[in-house]
Structure formats: C-alpha cells, structure tokens
C-alpha cells in the first residue's frame, strides 16, 4: 500500500518510516508535519492509508481526520504515543471515520524499533478492510446447546460497530435509561490498548454501567459489556461470556459475527441485535443467524453511517428486520423489548 505519515515529531516520523519500509510490501508516499499540510497533500495525492498523529500544531489529527474524510476520503489509522492521555481524542477521530488506533513505535537507544511488528499487523489487517478480498470463513462448529430455562434469562441486546462506532455507540446508549431492562453486549473494532478507555468514555455518556466484559461472566440487566481483548468474545452454553482466539482465520478480532452467531445458539431467551456504522461486512452473517432464530435485528441506515459497509451487508443479506437512522434506534430497541418482557412474565 501507499502510506502517508502525519506527525510533528522527528523521532516518531523516523520510527514510522522504518516500520513501513521494513515490510517490503508498502511504501511511504509522503510525510506531513501537521494536519493542515496533510490535508493539502491528501488533496493532491490521496494515499491508501494515513498514519495520523493526534496532537500537532496548526491543525490536530482529529480535525485533519474530519476534513480529509469529508474532502478526499481515505483510510486513516490513528497512531498516538499515549493511550491514557489521548483516549478521548482517539474516539472523537474514530467518530469522524478513522478506522482504528495504535501506539506509536519507538526507537531505542541503539536505534532498535519497539512496537513495529504490532503496527505492521494492524496495517495488514486494514489492508484487507480497504479493498483486498478476504472471504469470511465459517465461524466453525459450536458446542452442542445445553438446554436451559429460557424464562430465567432476560432478553439480550447485542451490538456490533466499527468505523464511526464510538460516537454511534454513545448516541445509542444515551437513549437507554438507568432502568433499561436488558443486558447489552458490544463488539467494537478497536485496538485492545484503547478498549478500557472506550468503556470509561462511554460510561460517562449514558445512565447504564459500562465496562469491559470479563471471562466466564453472565450478562446482567443494567450493564453494558464491551469486548476488551485481542480475542473473540462469545456466548457459551449456559449463557456466560468467554474469550477465545478461535477461529484464528477471521480478520476481525474480536468479530461481530462470532458474538452474533454464539448469541443465536446460546442465549435462548432471544433479544435484539443492532449493527452500526463500519467498514467491511463483519456482523452481517451473524445477524442473519439471529434473525432466523427469531431475534429482532436492526441495521443503521446509510444517511447516518460514517461508513455504510457492515449495515449495508446485513441489508443485502436480508438479515435486518429494520433499517433505521441512528437517532431512532434506541427507541426502536425499547419498543421491541416490551413484548419480549411481557412474554417473560407469562412464563
């Protein structure tokens, strides 16, 4: 791929340049020292991918991301030196269309690179997402369903999101009151280093408790659980959550499809699935599985999506019962929960 580097620190630029050049597959097409220069260069020569810093003079990375995605869109990976300090800026940039975030590699005292391999893996992953064909492999055989009393389970809400997801998730969750009667489980495509910060950021933007999902816990009413590892988050027999490295072959990890497929098998009470803005098609086939099991499925519409990829794939497969603008989704979820809760009370 043709990759551009936007950073105001000489050492960071050199580290990024060495990482890209070391791959043997990619080339540095241009470099810029601030967001305004990056915007100008991007208008003249749009690369396949931009490695975008956040804190820069003249124009920062958030504004540069917003302007580039509006005027000369291309794939943008946020690369920042500090996860804890710049977490909120990361989620803001992702709301404007940045695909993901990574930690800036560093040059050691002897000139050795630290963190280069993980950045190259991230670049390779994005390479598939922005145009390389990579057919989704089957999630694989799931363990047999262990029958449980579905009447003891509340309905479940499962959500998948990618590009533009943090802002969309904030909008969705802010529409749920403190007495929201269902647990919520979310897969958002984001680097694991930023997952805890995302949960905290969302926790301050809604009335529900938002935190990272833990291994072997059962989703509870009033909680929002977010996948927080470089592994798939799935439901298992008995309705508890588990992290797993398998299936290894899936490009997205965690995968929305894996969560959705497992919910179709193991959350016997049923519920509602929501597929929000995002590049690619992750979640579409899993949503179809849920619809076949009687779940109500909602896809975000094109007009309110930052990238109409994942929801569009669900619509194409006829996996979505409804296609709605983002501001209408929370109300639709609450309306669809009412008959499920009434059924639960009769059991």
TrEMBL record:
Active site: 162, 189, 282
GO molecular function: phosphorelay response regulator activity; protein-glutamate methylesterase activity; protein-glutamine glutaminase activity
EC number(s) stated in the UniProt entry for this protein: 3.1.1.61, 3.5.1.44
Chief place of localization: cytoplasm
Domain of life: Bacteria
Annotated SUPFAM superfamilies: CheY-like, Methylesterase CheB, C-terminal domain
GO biological process annotation, one example: chemotaxis
4-aspartylphosphate PTM sites in chain numbering: 53
A Pfam cross-reference name: CheB_methylest
Domain CheB-type methylesterase: 150-340
Keywords from the UniProt entry: Chemotaxis, Cytoplasm, Hydrolase, Phosphoprotein
InterPro entries documented for this protein: CheB-like, CheB_C, CheY-like_superfamily, Sig_transdc_resp-reg_Me-estase, Sig_transdc_resp-reg_receiver
Domain Response regulatory, residue spans: 2-119
Matches recorded under PANTHER family: PROTEIN-GLUTAMATE METHYLESTERASE/PROTEIN-GLUTAMINE GLUTAMINASE (PTHR42872), PROTEIN-GLUTAMATE METHYLESTERASE_PROTEIN-GLUTAMINE GLUTAMINASE (PTHR42872:SF6)
Domain notes from UniProt: Contains a C-terminal catalytic domain, and an N-terminal region which modulates catalytic activity.
HAMAP family, per the entry: CheB_chemtxs
Protein name stated in the entry: Protein-glutamate methylesterase/protein-glutamine glutaminase
Species for this entry: Ruficoccus amylovorans
């Amino acid at each position: 791929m043709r990759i551009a580097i936007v950073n105001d620190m000489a050492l960071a630029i050199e580290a990024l340049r060495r990482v890209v050049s070391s791959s043997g597959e990619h080339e540095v097409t241009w470099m810029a020292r601030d967001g305004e220069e990056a915007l100008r260069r991007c208008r003249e020569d749009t690369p396949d991918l931009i490695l975008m810093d956040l804190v820069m003079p003249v124009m920062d990375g958030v504004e540069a991301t917003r302007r580039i995605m509006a005027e000369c869109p291309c794939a943008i990976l946020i690369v920042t030196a500090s996860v804890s300090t710049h977490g909120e800026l990361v989620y803001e940039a992702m709301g404007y269309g940045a695909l993901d975030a990574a930690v800036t590699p560093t040059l050691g005292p002897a000139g050795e690179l630290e963190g280069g391999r993980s950045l190259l893996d991230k670049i390779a992953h994005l390479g598939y997402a922005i145009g390389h064909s990579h057919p989704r492999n089957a999630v694989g055989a799931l363990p047999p369903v262990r029958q449980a009393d579905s009447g003891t389970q509340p309905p479940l809400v499962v959500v998948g999101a990618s590009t533009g997801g943090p802002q969309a998730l904030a909008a969705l969750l802010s529409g749920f009151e403190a007495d929201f009667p269902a647990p919520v489980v979310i897969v958002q495509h984001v680097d694991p280093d930023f997952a805890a910060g995302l949960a905290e950021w969302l926790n301050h933007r809604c009335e529900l408790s938002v935190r990272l999902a833990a291994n072997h816990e059962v989703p509870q009413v009033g909680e929002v659980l977010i996948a927080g590892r470089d592994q798939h988050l799935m439901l298992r027999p008995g309705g508890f959550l588990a992290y797993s490295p398998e299936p290894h072959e899936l490009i997205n990890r965690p995968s929305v499809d894996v969560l959705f497929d497992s919910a179709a098998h193991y959350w016997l009470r049923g519920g509602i699935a929501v597929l929000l803005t995002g590049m690619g098609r992750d979640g579409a086939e899993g949503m179809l599985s849920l619809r076949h099991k009687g779940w109500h499925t909602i896809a975000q519409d094109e007009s309110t999506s930052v990238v109409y990829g994942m929801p569009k794939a669900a619509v194409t497969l006829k996996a979505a019962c409804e296609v709605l603008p983002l501001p209408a989704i929370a109300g639709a979820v609450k309306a669809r929960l009412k008959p499920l809760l009434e059924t639960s009370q009769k059991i």
